[in-house]
Amino acid sequence: ASKNFAAAAVLRLIQDGRLKLDDSLSAFFPNFPYSGVTVKMLMNHRSGLPNYVHYLEKMGWNKNQYATNQDVLNSLYTTHPNPEFRAGTRFSYSNTNFVLLAMIVEKLTGMPYPDYLKKKFFEPFQMNDTYVFSLADSMTAIKSYNAYGGVWEWDFLENTYGDKNIYTTPRDLLKW
User: Fold this and answer.
1) Residue 137 DSSP code
2) Phi, psi at 158, each rounded to 5°
3) Can you name the residues that pair with 145 across neighbouring β-strands?
4) CB atoms < 10 A from the CB of 84, how many?
5) How far is residue 73's CA from residue 85's CA, in Å, rounded to a whole number?
6) What are the contacts of 113-117 at 24+ separation with CB within 8 A?
7) Ramachandran class of 92: left when φ > 0, alpha when ψ lies in -120 to 50, beta otherwise
8) Are the C-beta atoms of 76 and 33 separated by less than 8 Å?
9) In 3-state terms, what secondary structure has residue 110?
């Protein structure tokens, strides 16, 4: 459910005239190291950007340090992992896309992404049991489970958002 909230936040900003689907990422991230990537390509997984979930560890990320959205962006600039393909030419699911969308929401609104979602969606829809998870919530959040029924053990990727980390309930999703 997390990615549809990021998409809704972006579409809300488009509706408010603050953003366009064809805006280039270089408008938000100066000297963005991948050419031709637009907001729309992020939303429909056609950016060609590599998935940070797969490349951070391979590129030597310290797994004892939680990665943030800013770390993901910085990794694109500093380690410049190879794109999977030229922007706009194919589909490939990439969490990196939605991390960047959340960062665009923050840049345009001047608000942390969790606060923006709370103000514009969760509170108006009375989604009282929905929030964007952060490590500060780790003592009270209910753990997730893996495909085998075991508890999902948190790893160094648990501190990003936009691509994941919406905690909610079935009742709140029904309101959504």
Assistant:
1) G
2) -80, -5
3) 151
4) 15
5) 18
6) 113/9, 113/69, 113/161, 113/162, 114/161, 116/9, 117/5, 117/9, 117/166
7) beta
8) yes
9) coil
Q: What is the pTM of this model?
A: 0.94
Packing angle of the helix pair 69-78, 95-109 (nearest 10 deg): 110
Residues 58, 9 contacting (CB under 8 angstroms): no
User: Alpha helix locations (H) across 39-176?
Assistant: 39-43, 52-58, 69-78, 95-109, 113-117, 170-175
Residue with tokens 């797969």: 54
The per-residue pLDDT for 121 is: 98
Angle at which helix 2-15 crosses helix 95-109, to 10 degrees, equals 40
- Does 8 score more than 90 pLDDT? yes
Chain centroid, CA 118 distance in Å: 16
pLDDT in tens, 33-92: 999 999 999 999 999 999 999 999 999 999 999 999 999 999 999 999 999 999 999 999
Q: How confident is the model at residue 139 (pLDDT cuts 50, 70, 90)?
A: confident
